[in-house]
Target: Glyoxylate/hydroxypyruvate reductase A
Amino acid sequence: MSIVILRQDDKIDEWKKALKARAPHINVYSYLEEHPKDDMTMALVWKHPKNTLSRYPNLKCISCSGAGVDFIFNDRDRPKHLPITRVVDPYLASDMSEYVLAAIFSHIKNLNHYKLEQTQAKWSPKSYLRIQDVSVGIMGVGELGKTLAKDLVQYGFKTLGWSNSKKRINGVNSFVGEAELSLFLEQTAILVCLLPLTNKTKGILNKTLFTLLPKGAFVINVARGGHMVDDDLMEMLDKDHLSGAVLDVFHNEPLPTSHLYWQHPKVHITPHIASVSDTASVVPQIVENYERLMSGQPLLNEVSITKGY
Ligand code: NAP
Model:
């Protein structure tokens, strides 16, 4: 009865240490070391290498060490009968909210514009926006989106949310499904994407959607690169329909050096750092799920296999 960690970055040891510190009685292995394959009960994964999950005949659960599980659904080799859990964590939500707030404040006070002007020693004052006059629309009002929505309301932004089901959050105007998407978009000056990447949301940030936003709208994508149609975004920026974009996530990561985003004056990119799982904060729920697995209790934060998130 053990946990195997499958990921391709340099964080395997960090997770292993954190798990051992919290639960010394659980055997934890890196998939890279010698380990008894038939003893693995839980696979703790993050962008795991292909064709690895099927090596474990007695696996009972796939535990994602982050919030987004799209990479697991995209793994054709994944044993389909296994439950999938993901991370729901207050730091993941507050870190995301802080990042998006930073992007919004930078936009409404033109900080990116002045940074560019500075490189040319240009002194060019520009009018700025006030919080009370700015509407922010969040696509995806889940664990991360709802924390952001509450923070935006607290600051005094007009706050709108779009999701599959109706949300009742003080001060947030909730829109539901495709039928209310255009109504949501036409009132949104800053669009934040916090949707999971599923068959239904892939490529949702496209020309048709951008056209429904008011002229001068600003786009923040902190969800997944697969939501964005890159050429459509650049076309709408170049036509001045959109005033700018902050992008933390990309189709291919690291973003290839040849990508046009790197040089685009209206695009501000960051290397997928908006919100990163904090091992100390997240490990207790992984251990709790392992214990639940052992005692046959329902798992925490289980993903819906049918919905894909
Ligand atoms: P979540 O709790 O599952 O929330 C997803 C939200 O999207 C829900 O409100 C859901 O509606 C809505 N939704 C899903 N499909 C929809 C559709 N077709 N139409 C309308 N609404 C739809 O997810 P989360 O924990 O907030 O995380 C969101 C995403 O953030 C993750 O999947 C991940 O890709 C991304 N993320 C990025 C970073 C980063 O560093 N950039 C870090 C963490 C997470 P219902 O509430 O009605 O179900």
